[in-house]
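[Meeting: bench + compute handoff]

Bench side (C.D.) handed over the final construct sequence. Compute side (W.E.) agreed to return the predicted structure before the next meeting so the bench team could plan truncations. Sequence as handed over:
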Amino acid sequence: MIYICDDLNSYSDELYEEHLRSVVPAWRKAAVSSYRSVEHRKQSVLAIALLSLGLRREYNVSSVPEFQFNEYGKPSFAKLPVCFSLSHCARAVVCAVSERNVGIDAERVVPYDARIARRVCNAAELAGLETSAAPDVLFSRYWTTKEAISKFEGLGLGMDFRTITPASYATFCCHHPDKGYTVSVCCGKRGTATAPPPVQYVSPRAL
């Protein structure tokens, strides 16, 4: 299941403080505090709140177990056989919860920058961007798809995105032009998933 919260403007300071007290486990509070901006701290708390919601609804787990991290920073649960992936940007906070490995990424659509694209895309992708009527949207699709794959593989930014071949994976992407963000999820290698995972949109008040 994919959980998306994109009503970030309604996330009040009071509700943020309530979630910080009642939803975020003690072991996670230091990570939240490490973000310099209030905006990023709120997004981090919303991500944990979405994960908590998914665990309650799908696995009857009442609180978020402590994370463990691999050498590239991929989080997982040490003792709970449930996989998850989190991401947040200025437009949305997303969480994927599954019994199988998964990776998810959300990014705000920004003006296309060819210099950045050359660090992320291969020659064929760059050619498509140069002729696209909406290169900003297409690049956000490329970026989020490759980031989701890198999270699925547990390598994060340790992967050279130019060498990632999305066609080798089961990936699904959705673009929200009205709200200016793109979400991509990687559910496995190609052939392991034939349909996109279900998506649920959640307001901050519902968490």
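W.E. noted at the follow-up: The chain has a mean pLDDT of 95. C.D. will use this when planning the next construct.
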